[in-house]
Design a protein that fits this description.
With 202 residues, the chain is α/β, with parallel strands linked by helices. Helix content is 32%, strand content 24%. A 6-stranded mixed sheet has the order 2-1-3-4-5-6.
Length: 202
């Protein structure tokens, strides 16, 4: 049995990752609530999703004996030169709510026609053990930003993002459908392969 700690304070993101990691034999998925001592808060000051994910995984792995999974993800909008990017969670302000971030995004895109509202969700996941990087993996899904918020599921920008080839936002799809095509699901496929290789060696 190996333990994998999800290094995130975001409850909704953590739940999504836990759901995507289900089904592994000999693997116990854990989160901060399972720890006796809370690890330090990580300042996400990287310029890329990978830098932030690796920093989380490496830092927390020094306080945990098993594998640590660090994730950073966000939305990149072409018409905004890739913004909000790594600042997706704090686009409107520090500790912004999803609604505040959504409103700012819609305001900035107010004069942008639908044909020019291309965007993509990006997720980078890093795995570390005892201060050493085991691997890092990226997933992404392309789509567009809707003219208004639709749907009640999900979190972040899910109510605005329509993935390519679909007519509904992530928030309208519900977790089961979203988890089959999302950026996080794509990254987790590679993560699962890496974990399987790790289990063979352990």
């Amino acid at each position: 049995m190996i333990e994998i700690l999800i290094a995130s304070h975001n409850i909704k993101k953590r739940h999504e990752l836990e759901t995507l990691l289900k089904g592994f034999n000999r693997v116990k998925v854990m989160n901060y609530n399972d720890l006796d001592v809370m690890p330090p808060l990580i300042v996400e000051d990287g310029k890329t999703f990978r830098q932030n994910a690796v920093k989380k995984a490496l830092t927390i792995s020094r306080f945990f004996d098993g594998l640590v999974l660090g994730d950073d993800s966000g939305l990149e909008v072409e018409a905004l030169d890739g913004k909000p990017g790594v600042r997706s969670a704090r686009f409107a302000r520090k500790n912004a709510t999803d609604m505040e971030n959504n409103r700012k995004l819609l305001r900035l895109l107010d004069s942008v026609p639908r044909k020019n509202r291309q965007a993509r969700f990006v997720c980078h996941i890093a795995i570390a053990e005892k201060g050493l990087l085991v691997g890092s993996f990226e997933g992404m899904v392309s789509g567009e930003i809707n003219l208004k918020r639709k749907g009640k599921n999900g979190f972040g920008y899910d109510s605005l993002f329509i993935p390519k080839g679909h007519k509904e936002t992530f928030a309208e799809m519900g977790p089961a459908r979203k988890n089959r095509i999302s950026h996080r699901a794509v990254a987790l496929k590679a993560v699962k392969t890496a974990i399987k290789e790790y289990l063979k060696k352990s």
